[in-house]
Design goal:
The strands form two sheets. The protein has a three-stranded parallel β-sheet. The protein has a domain at 75-146: Ribosomal Protein L15, Chain: K, domain 2, CATH 3.100.10. By secondary structure, it is of the alpha/beta class. The chain contains four helices and six strands, in the order H-E-H-E-H-E-E-E-H-E. The N and C termini lie far apart (79 Å).
């Protein structure tokens, strides 16, 4: 019966460690696989060498992946959000967007995009509109008003 006390490894699985620098009788005598002379042949000589090439320099630098744009992005509101949050004939402006929680910050402006559908007649004020969103709002009977982006507008939740 096989138990922990009588387990055995197969022959040839455990290889003997390469014993370097133990005389000629070891089979790796005289130069001990280090070759002749030079810094790498001496004791402690290998650690002081570094390859001073461009490749090794580049490999040592930490890389950050991707691309981060320096231009800030506008806050995005989709038509499906306007459909679900607002009633027919209502005015949608920056204050109401913040009140409803659709926009957290107005620092970089608000852009209306056309994801979803809109059936309600809304008057929408924003800094930018996609062409398809503009068309969808106007076909639903609404009105599109583009407002100028002023630096850091402060509108509080009330």
């Amino acid at each position: 019966m096989l138990s922990l006390h009588n387990l055995q490894t197969k022959p040839g699985v455990n290889k003997a460690k390469k014993r370097v620098g133990r005389g000629n009788a070891s089979g790796r005598g005289t130069y001990s696989t280090r070759g002749l002379k030079g810094q790498k042949a001496r004791s402690g000589g290998k650690s002081g060498l570094t390859a001073r090439s461009m490749k090794s320099y580049l490999l040592g630098i930490p890389k950050t992946r991707g691309f981060r744009s320096l231009t800030a992005k506008m806050a995005i509101v989709n038509l499906k959000d306007l459909q679900s949050q607002f009633n027919d004939g209502q005015l949608v402006n920056l204050r109401t967007l913040i009140k409803k929680g659709l926009v957290q910050s107005l620092d970089n402006g608000v852009k209306i995009l056309s994801a979803g559908s809109l059936t309600k007649k809304l008057t929408v004020e924003a800094h930018a509109f996609s062409e398809s969103a503009k068309k969808a709002i106007e076909t639903a009977g609404g009105k599109v008003i583009v407002i100028a982006l002023r630096p850091v507008e402060k509108i509080e939740k009330k």
